[in-house]
Design goal:
single chain; 11 helices; about 0% strand
């Protein structure tokens, strides 16, 4: 019987409570996105934890590639035009601020791994990332209720491969994979709470906020691009040996193909659901 993390179970409980709160406010899109993110990370974590010795790195590269390609395209298509539409200048500044803030938070946030936490450092980073992404998702959907689910689902699509990699590391170190229930729940919890906030009607503020959201999501998507380099996530999960260079060369082709396909999927989905 695998050990269950109390922190992880607390996160799942918080998501259930926030779901009930969202139901009373009619925030069904936010709830759907939150639970899809939860299912993606939790489900992938189960697979990653079980396959700590042998992994299918080709599938991992395709999962990362499809998710990041879809996320980049969705942020560029659904958020950037809205940000610029609210206010061309402040929208542009918001995009730049989002990209730089995402980079800064990711880089400086690494210092948290040297601090003493009651759970795995990777889970701490994933939780912080999930809460930030959820807060922005909730803010966007709470103030743009007509926005379709395609954007939100594309944004959280990377939760699956991220959970797989984290569970792979936890499984190898003998730590409970169930701690990942906390970051898996983080998107939904933060999204519901932030969706209840109303932005002022100022075009400049809206341009800045939606531009910031686009910038953050673009940074996150680019951070999850499947880079097949020595020492990276793909290399670590592949557990490659002397043939590392040849294997990574082959995986680079898969990385390019998968990111392109992720973008095409969003384009086709947009053609299907776009109003005529």
């Amino acid at each position: 019987m695998p050990q269950l993390s109390r922190i992880g179970l607390a996160g799942a409980g918080a998501l259930a409570v926030c779901t009930a709160l969202a139901a009373t406010a009619g925030l069904w899109k936010v709830v759907t996105i939150g639970w899809v993110a939860f299912a993606a990370m939790a489900g992938a974590a189960v697979l990653g934890g079980r396959r700590s010795d042998a992994t299918d790195v080709d599938r991992l590269v395709w999962a990362f590639g499809l998710a990041s390609g879809a996320m980049i395209t969705s942020a560029a298509v659904f958020l950037v035009p809205d940000a610029i539409g609210h206010h061309p200048r402040y929208g542009g500044f918001g995009i730049a601020l989002g990209v730089l803030t995402g980079f800064g938070a990711h880089t400086i946030g690494h210092r948290a791994t040297h601090m003493d936490f009651p759970m795995d450092h990777a889970a701490v980073e994933l939780t912080a990332h999930s809460l930030a992404a959820g807060a922005i998702i909730g803010l966007v959907y709470g103030n743009m209720p007509d926005l379709g689910l395609l954007l939100g689902l594309a944004i959280v699509s990377h939760k699956g491969p991220a959970g797989y990699v984290a569970a792979h590391r936890l499984g190898r170190s003998g730590k409970p994979v169930s701690v990942l229930l906390l970051p898996a729940s983080g998107v939904g919890v933060a999204a519901v709470l932030s969706a209840l906030l109303e932005l002022p009607t100022s075009p400049a503020v809206n341009g800045l906020v939606f531009g910031f959201a686009a910038g953050v999501f673009l940074h996150v998507a680019m951070d999850f691009l499947p880079r097949c380099e020595l020492g990276g996530d793909v290399y670590e999960v592949a557990s490659v040996g002397e043939d590392a260079h040849a294997l990574l060369d082959r995986l680079r082709t898969h990385a390019v193909a998968s990111t392109g396909l992720g973008a095409v999927v969003v384009f086709v989905a947009w053609l299907v659901v776009a109003p005529r």
